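Tokens for chain A. Residues wanted.
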């Protein structure tokens, strides 16, 4: 048998839904409106809480960032020449295709850049290939970068050849080391700008 709600029970229910500053029926009505709005508020909070956060791409180490930018620059250069950039695991191209890619990447003809090290070894490079073009874009001065990077990369062999401590060899080449740092800093700045530009194009 259904029981009627007593006036006292109605008053107590209204008290649980009361809003400061209101009384009686006004408090009861405002309380019901507040309850009706709760689902919308909860849905909004859930939507904010469940929204996926933008994934941040972890920053590459400086060396990797420069290599990545150089790779993209050389790939673009080869593609413009109608060649397929080499990729690990991809189908092996023909010998003729490999030669065309190598010439386009490293240059052809007489080597314009050459440096003989204290150990007696000579290092040579071209200035007309896709790699040379990428280095000019990143370092600004390919000839200078060729020289100082060759020297810095061979400090340990030079120390062993001269039978001197590496610290003495580094002191001997302090100017080359300073130029190497300066050019590498420029390359890092240019690499970041290039990779960000490539990323922006990919999103469009």
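Reply:
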């Amino acid at each position: 048998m259904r029981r009627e709600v007593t006036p006292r029970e109605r008053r107590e229910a209204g008290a649980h839904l009361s809003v400061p500053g209101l009384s009686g029926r006004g408090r009861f009505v405002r309380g019901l409106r507040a309850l009706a709005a709760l689902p919308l508020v909860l849905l909004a909070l859930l939507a904010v809480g469940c929204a996926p956060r933008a994934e941040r791409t972890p920053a590459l180490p400086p060396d990797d960032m420069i290599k990545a930018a150089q790779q993209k620059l050389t790939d673009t250069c080869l593609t413009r020449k109608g060649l397929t950039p080499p990729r690990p695991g991809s189908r092996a191209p023909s010998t003729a295709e490999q030669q065309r890619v190598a010439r386009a990447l490293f240059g052809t003809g007489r080597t314009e850049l050459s440096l003989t090290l204290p150990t007696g070894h000579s290092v040579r490079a071209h200035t007309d290939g896709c790699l040379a073009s990428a280095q000019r874009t990143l370092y600004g001065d390919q000839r200078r970068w060729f020289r100082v990077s060759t020297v810095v990369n061979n400090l340990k062999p030079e120390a062993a050849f001269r039978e001197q401590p590496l610290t003495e060899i580094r002191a001997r080449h302090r100017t080359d080391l300073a130029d190497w740092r300066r050019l590498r800093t420029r390359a890092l700045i240019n690499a970041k700008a290039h990779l960000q530009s490539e990323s922006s194009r990919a999103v469009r």
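The first strand starts at residue 113 and ends at 116. The CA atoms of residues 66 and 188 lie 6 Å apart.
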